[in-house]
Fold this protein.
Amino acid sequence: MSVDPSGLAEAVEAVDYTGVVPDAEADKAIEGRGPWLLAWQRLRRDRVAMISLVIIVLIVLMAIFAPLATWITGHPPNEQYRQIGLTPDGLPKGPTSQFWLGTDDLGRDIFVRIAYGARVSLLVGVVATGIAVAIGVVVGLAAGFFGGIVDTVLARLVDVILCVPFLLVAIALVSITGPGLSITILVIGFFSWASVARIVRGQVLSLREREFVEAARSLGASDRRIMFVDILPNVLAPVIVYSTLLIPVVIVVEATLSYLGLGLPPPTADWGGMISDGQAYYTTSWWFLIFPGAALLITTLAFNLFGDGVRDAFDPRSDQLLK
Amino acid sequence: MSASDVSDSPGSEPSNPEDVLRDEPLVRLEGVSKAFPVQSSSLFKRSHDYVHAVDDVSLEVYPGETLGLVGETGCGKSTLARCIARLYDLTAGSITFDGKDISSLSRRGMRPLRREIQMIFQDPYGSLNPRRRVGSIIGDPFVIHGIDSRADRKKKVQELMELVGLNPEHYNRFPAEFSGGQRQRIGTARALALRPRMVICDEPVSALDVSIQAQIINMLKDLQNDFGLTYIFISHDLSVVRHVSNRIAVMYLGRIVEVAPSDQIFEKTRHPYTRALLSALPVADPDTADRRERIVLVGDIPSPTNPPSGCRFHTRCPKARADCVKIDPVLAQVFDDGAEHLTACLHPLALDEDMSLARPQIEDSEILMAPTPGQDTNTEGTP
């Protein structure tokens, strides 16, 4: 961690220049304030990003401890309370002390289902983004670093992926394989890596001409080492910014697929599916549509605002945030 | 510091030019050429133009000496350096290091030699990875060549940092936290990590301010004495090169036009281009500065894509004659120069010749360039 300037000056003065290698304890006194630390310090001063981060953490906790919601309310997510959970006309019940956010058309507890639905959204959001970033970084690194025929082939591949009408292909694929969690993740991940690859490739093209790459060459470093040790850390910042902003997009795409009936098969609790079911009842039971919609909105908004903060934190021009 | 100062210090390698010349050369370049294909912007038309960055350079570097390489920007100094370090493949010619031909070695074959030949780069900001800690940057050579355990490595890195005058406690800092001079010390520590025999310094001080330049140059000198290093020292700053070099090679448009021991280059300048270059040196005494001969070359350095015929300097040379257009001079002894002073000029300068009065004795139409439409040879302005 960083030290205050006065402590730093003392530490520098205390250095014995006569050639004694300092012991490990003195070593800790001077820790570099690296790019990552500086970015984190900037991010910490960004109030909006910090509030968003708190919300994201809360949503993550909600997903992890979803069974707790069942334990508190006593309602499993897929349990249909046809007697107590529906009006005599068979319509969903509004928020009560028993059903905090009301019930759906089958008499299920919406609060518990939103908590369980967060699991699906976050899992798909994070894993699919992870797949997209992993493929995109490797492809972008290879294309930018090797250039020539490798670059030509990979760049065309990226163009093709970006041209494919994603929803149509997703619908076609899911209708062949049947809906499921893994196919959803794979489809979204596979169609999202192309823009990551583009970003990485552009960065690598300029980085590989830098003198530190030449220095690594003159030391005899292998291509792989130059790519992953010298170049990769320099493209991580834009990749991190992009993936933070990709997560909410993926969550929305997952909700879209579920909304179209291509996501997880019922009765799995899932925000997109709940919105889809709820819209039939919005004239009589607003809570059925509004609460799952609000959960989706708050989650994506929090990720987006946090992503904006991360981008600002990595941007050296936002230095004014540091005193 | 002149060559004699160096040999005074105890334990130094033979740095006196006469001593040095008796040894076998550490590096021998023979007819080294490097041409880069010009990128064609058109998709269908392939360009067959080449930039002849280095053209037929032959040179020897002796163990323990500092060879200065000077010339204008774009004359091929850095390309030549990168050819010697085998960062570029040669187009033609051969490079012998310590008796072994390294000009056609593969990357794998070069690996052991990377420990012997190292480079210090010009840009202290660009040559250090901004995302990595200084300790791991300096430790890179050990990791790449699989030397020492992790614990030993740290100790060695800190020793290196002390060697180049850095606080070893700054091991965990990032390059951005250092000044330009300190970063150049980091680059030097990295280059010296594997105890190379030869270090190619590609304008190591030109990005630094003058007071820091002196520090870095003195440090390089000390390290040379301590480790018996051989330097190839590239610069466009003649006063710096004079200070550090035992011998100086002057480059113009990819060729070496004059090579001689430092004192001789300054006192017995033979090539008109060298003279012009030297006359641009600032002089501290204003009286001397007013009186001295000042030669201002006319026009720009010609394009290395199609260099002039004959002597490459004839388009700008005040002493150009008709034969300069046709005959390409080779490096040779002229007048009564010793074997170590070579000049590539058909009409070299005598000892006290005043070149400022010379006028080219060729017609503009005779100045031959490979025909390129729209190229201006820019000789009309000759006074």
Notes: The mean pLDDT of chain A is 82.
